[in-house]
Amino acid sequence: xxxxxxxxxxxxxxxxxxxxxxxxxxxxxxxxxxxxxxxxxxxxxxxxxxxxxxxxxxxxxxxxxxxxxxxxxxxxxxxxxxxxxxxxxxxxxxxxxxxxxxxxxxxxxxxxxxxxxxxxxxxxxxxxxxxxxxxxxxxxxxxxxxxxxxxxxxxxxxxxxxxxxxxxxxxxxxxxxxxxxxxxxxxxxxxxxxxxxxxxxxxxxxxxxxxxxxxxxxxx
Length: 220
Prior knowledge:
By secondary structure, the protein is of the alpha+beta class. It has helices spanning 3-14, 76-82, 115-127, 185-193, 201-213, 215-218; strands at 32-40, 43-51, 55-62, 67-74, 100-103, 105-108, 137-143, 151-159, 179-184.
C-alpha cells in the first residue's frame, strides 16, 4: 500500500457522519436479543442477552519486519462508550477517531470451515497474507460472561514478506474498512501501557501471550 493510499484509508475510516441510534431490527444478521428464564437453587431468575456468532482472532508476527501485524477500524460501540453518557453526538467535540481501535486481525465464524481455516481466510482478507494452514497455532478460546453469547478463538501465526500477496483491508462488499498497521515490539509494549490504549480485552490477552511465550521468536 502506497503512502497516498494509506492516507486515503485513514481519511475514509474517520469520515463518519449522520450517526444515530435506533431500535434493533428483528431480522438483524448479527444479534438476536432474548430473555433467558431459569430456576437456580429453587429461585426463578432471568437474564437478558444477545445471541451472536462466534469469532476468531489472530496474533500475527512478521518475521521479515520483526513486527506485529494489526488492524485499525471504526467501532460504533467504542465511539459511544468514549462519549459522556447521555451526550449528543457531535463530531466537532467527539471526533470519529475516538471510536477507532487497534485490534488483532479477526472475523466471524460464519462459514462451513474449521476455525483455523476461517482464521486463514481472515488473515488474507484483512491483512493480505497467505499463510499455510499448518502455520496457525491454537492459543485458547475465551467466552463472554455478560450480554452476548459469542466465543472468541485466538490463534498465533508467523508470516514473512513473501506471504504478502495483496493489500488486505477487508471485504468492501461486506462494509469492511480496515487499515493494516505494523508495530514493533517496543511500540506495542508502549501502547498497552499508554493512556491512548483503545483496544478490546482479547487484544491485550493475545499480545501478553505473545510477549510471554514467543520471546525466542522476537528476541532472536
